[in-house]
Design goal:
Organism: Rhizobium tubonense
Strand order of the largest sheet: 8-17-16-15-14-13-12-9-10-11
Number of domains: 2
Family: In the C-terminal section; belongs to the NnrD/CARKD family.
Mean pLDDT: 95
CATH architecture of the largest domain: 3-Layer(aba) Sandwich
Strand content: 15-25%
Radius of gyration: 26 Å
Number of helices: 20
Low-confidence stretches: none
CATH superfamily of the largest domain: Ribokinase
EC number: 4.2.1.136, 5.1.99.6
GO molecular function: ADP-dependent NAD(P)H-hydrate dehydratase activity; ATP binding; metal ion binding; NAD(P)HX epimerase activity
Shape: elongated
Oligomer: single chain
InterPro entries: Carbohydrate_kinase_pred_CS, CARKD, Nnr, Ribokinase-like, YjeF_N_dom, YjeF_N_dom_sf
């Protein structure tokens, strides 16, 4: 089944191929530019009817061509319009040259623009295809606009942002609104691009869906229920707790038990039929005094764990929250290679000296391992990938998932979930106040709870991240991890 265009994410390279294919099919490329420019003008008028002047900043390519069309449309609507150009517009080629020739407003050099109160800037300097730092004169202009607090409407992507990675290339506009065409790009969702785009509007300018979909590789999308809803286990009337899975969460020492309890409760609330905390002897008393719905079992050594694993109903484990870093964590993780394992926090860091030991243990068969690193933990397991600046966050997560034969949850404000087969989802529903101590422990438990119920590894990881964001929205600002657990709901 083909996805609606609104669900697709195309790289700038793929979108350029779409434009070329549309032109080769007989569609007027200048007609598409006209529609794009008019969409920008309409958005600017709709959002800023009080503007005293629209200032259109036009670049040396087709993004600038969109700007010249927008300037003409704004002028024809009766608005006050000024145009400033980067470089010599007389040197433009193709559709951009035609757009410039049809613009009745005499332009000035971009360096001459001085922001005035009442201005609204239409940024049509560079689009999503920018792959190098902006010129110094553009960087200075961005600084002047930011200092003057002039609102910006960006065409395709705020100039200075990389459409593939969302990174700032030297300097970038902060837009109130961004108008893009046909589909979004990864840079619209990845940070800091998402924040700098402001409100994003996607306009259909008339390229047939079949052409767009033919160039959508389909491996990268936004993390929404549409991506994993079909994998959610059905709720049957005739069921029992073991059919909904048994999740085990390993506890830390007597002074570090809280993380495991939050993880365990999150797994229970996410729908696992049973949840047990596996605890050392020294932590048994603390855990016993604070547990009700969650069960408790003493597991002191690797021998204890292996004996318990003879119970095949123990399907899914969470190891890491508050557990402690070291040999015991490694031994326990490696004892679980035939089960589903969510490895988080201390569990991840325990393998920093020899990540291959972990990856090799889970290399065969179906994907059973979920890794949930934040930025620092990611660098401990994948140091060469982490420092490769040429890769976007999505590409780093994809490379890590393939190497580890694991579902990767590369955490952050723009968490990326990746599978070994190249699929990747960018999460966008997490509020900023989720960045609090214990939030990651809750996430690990949610993913574990979904895995225990039988969801495939990648889908469970993606659904868990989305549920985590949903719980954060429900809990509201000022939440603690305990508050967050209380707002976790099953799918």
């Amino acid at each position: 089944m083909t996805r609606p265009l609104c669900e697709l994410l195309l790289t700038p390279e793929d979108m350029a191929a779409v434009d070329q294919a549309a032109a080769e099919s007989g569609i007027s490329s200048f007609g598409l530019m006209e529609k794009a420019g008019h969409a920008v003008a309409a958005a600017a008028l709709r959002h800023f009817p009080e503007a005293l002047r629209f200032v259109v900043l036009c670049g040396p390519g087709n993004n600038g061509g969109d700007g010249y069309v927008a300037a003409r449309a704004l002028w024809e609507s009766g608005a006050a319009v000024s145009v400033f150009s980067l470089g010599k517009p007389q040197a433009l080629k193709g559709d951009a040259a035609r757009a410039f020739a049809s613009c009745p407003i005499p332009g000035q050099d971009i360096a001459a623009y001085a922001p005035l109160s009442g201005d609204v800037v239409v940024d049509a300097i560079f689009g999503a295809g920018l792959a190098r730092p902006v010129p110094e004169e553009v960087a200075r202009l961005i600084g002047r606009v930011y200092k003057a607090n002039v609102p910006v409407v960006a065409v395709d992507l705020p100039s200075g942002l990389d459409g593939l990675s969302g990174r700032i290339l030297g300097a970038a506009f902060t837009a109130a609104y961004t108008v893009t065409f046909m589909t979004r790009k990864p840079g619209h969702l990845l940070m800091p691009g998402r924040e700098l785009c402001g409100t994003l509007e996607v306009f259909d300018i008339g390229i047939p869906a079949r052409i767009v979909q033919a160039h959508a590789k389909g491996q990268v999308a936004e993390n929404t229920p549409a991506q994993w809803q079909a994998s959610v286990p059905a709720s049957l009337i005739e069921t029992h707790k073991y059919k909904r899975g048994h999740l085990v969460v390993f506890s830390g020492s007597a002074t570090a038990t809280g993380a495991a309890r939050m993880s365990a409760m999150a797994g229970l609330r996410a729908g696992a039929g049973l949840v047990t905390i596996a605890s050392s002897q020294e932590a048994m008393g603390v855990n016993a005094n604070l547990l009700t719905a969650v069960m408790l079992r003493q597991i002191e050594t690797e021998k204890d764990l292996n004996a318990w694993l003879e119970d095949k109903r123990l399907t899914t484990f969470v190891l890491g929250p508050g557990f402690g870093i070291g040999k015991k964590a490694r031994k326990f993780a490696l004892a679980l290679t035939n089960r589903h394992l969510v490895l988080d926090a201390d569990g991840i860091t325990s393998f920093r000296e020899d990540p291959a030991q972990l990856f090799d243990a889970f290399a065969e068969g179906a994907t059973r391992l979920v890794l949930t690193p934040h930025e620092g933990e990611f660098a401990r397991l994948f140091p060469d990938i982490a420092v490769n600046y040429s890769l976007s966050k999505v590409q780093k997560a994809q490379a890590a998932a393939k190497r580890a034969h694991a579902a990767i949850v590369y955490k952050g404000a723009d968490s990326v979930i990746a599978a070994p087969d190249g699929r990747a989802l960018i999460n966008t529903n997490a509020p900023s106040w989720l960045a609090t101590a214990g939030s990651g422990d809750v996430l690990a438990g949610i993913i574990g709870g979904l895995l225990a119920q039988g969801m495939p590894t990648f889908e469970a990881a993606a659904a868990g991240v989305w549920l985590h964001g949903k719980a954060g929205q429900s809990a509201g600002k000022g939440l603690t991890a305990e508050d967050l657990v209380a707002h976790v709901r099953p799918l």
